[in-house]
């Protein structure tokens, strides 16, 4: 499936809550494939649909050699907290220490509409919480304490990519033999 451009900090779609998925169809399966391929090519530990411009409650993850996806997630968080570095494909090349629950139980659906439960700790728990935040229009920098958020915003404003126009996706006028939509 085609690699999609990743939306960067400042793109309005990253701040809008995503809509629940209601159709578990071919288009959803294509979206999951696009998310997975884009995430792995980036590379990243997770990618949410709004990060590629799709306002639906879907995300993928790649942690400890495991690739997965979750549709319409709901989370139960453990009480123990982890504090460690976190980054985001929509805020490239920057990371900041962020507090998250160390354990998570995520419930939702697979791309075919089957119910699934994912239990994760440490990095998987962090990735699931991070991507679910994207579905709610929340970025990890929003979770930083005031001093760290100030430093993060300064670093973002100074980043080479900050303020650049989003890439335009064009469809080839030539035959692509099924490799483009």
From TrEMBL:
<comment type="function">
    <text>Removes the formyl group from the N-terminal Met of newly synthesized proteins. Requires at least a dipeptide for an efficient rate of reaction. N-terminal L-methionine is a prerequisite for activity but the enzyme has broad specificity at other positions.</text>
</comment>
<keyword id="KW-0648">Protein biosynthesis</keyword>
<feature type="binding site">
    <location>
        <position position="134"/>
    </location>
    <ligand>
        <name>Fe cation</name>
    </ligand>
</feature>
<dbReference type="Pfam" id="PF01327">
    <property type="entry name" value="Pep_deformylase"/>
</dbReference>
<protein>
    <recommendedName>
        <fullName>Peptide deformylase</fullName>
        <ecNumber>3.5.1.88</ecNumber>
    </recommendedName>
</protein>
<dbReference type="GO" id="GO:0042586">
    <property type="term" value="F:peptide deformylase activity"/>
</dbReference>
<feature type="active site">
    <location>
        <position position="131"/>
    </location>
</feature>
<dbReference type="InterPro" id="IPR036821">
    <property type="entry name" value="Peptide_deformylase_sf"/>
</dbReference>
<feature type="binding site">
    <location>
        <position position="88"/>
    </location>
    <ligand>
        <name>Fe cation</name>
    </ligand>
</feature>
<keyword id="KW-0378">Hydrolase</keyword>
<feature type="binding site">
    <location>
        <position position="130"/>
    </location>
    <ligand>
        <name>Fe cation</name>
    </ligand>
</feature>
<dbReference type="InterPro" id="IPR023635">
    <property type="entry name" value="Peptide_deformylase"/>
</dbReference>
<keyword id="KW-0408">Iron</keyword>
<keyword id="KW-0479">Metal-binding</keyword>
<comment type="similarity">
    <text>Belongs to the polypeptide deformylase family.</text>
</comment>
């Amino acid at each position: 499936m085609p690699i999609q451009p990743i939306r960067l900090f400042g793109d309005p779609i990253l701040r809008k809550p995503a809509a629940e998925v209601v159709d578990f169809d071919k288009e959803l399966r294509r979206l999951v494939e696009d998310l997975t391929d884009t995430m792995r090519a980036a590379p990243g530990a997770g990618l949410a649909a709004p990060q590629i411009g799709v306002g639906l409650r879907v995300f993928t993850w790649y942690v400890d050699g495991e690739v997965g996806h979750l549709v319409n997630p709901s989370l139960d968080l453990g009480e123990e907290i982890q504090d460690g570095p976190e980054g985001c494909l929509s805020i490239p090349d920057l990371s900041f220490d962020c507090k998250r629950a160390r354990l998570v139980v995520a419930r939702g659906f697979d791309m075919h509409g089957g119910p699934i439960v994912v239990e994760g700790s440490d990095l998987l728990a962090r990735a699931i919480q991070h991507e679910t935040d994207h579905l709610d229009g929340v970025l990890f920098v929003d979770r930083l304490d005031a001093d760290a958020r100030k430093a993060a915003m300064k670093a973002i404003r100074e980043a080479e990519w900050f303020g650049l126009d989003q890439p335009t996706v064009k469809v080839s006028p030539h035959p692509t033999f099924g490799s483009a939509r």
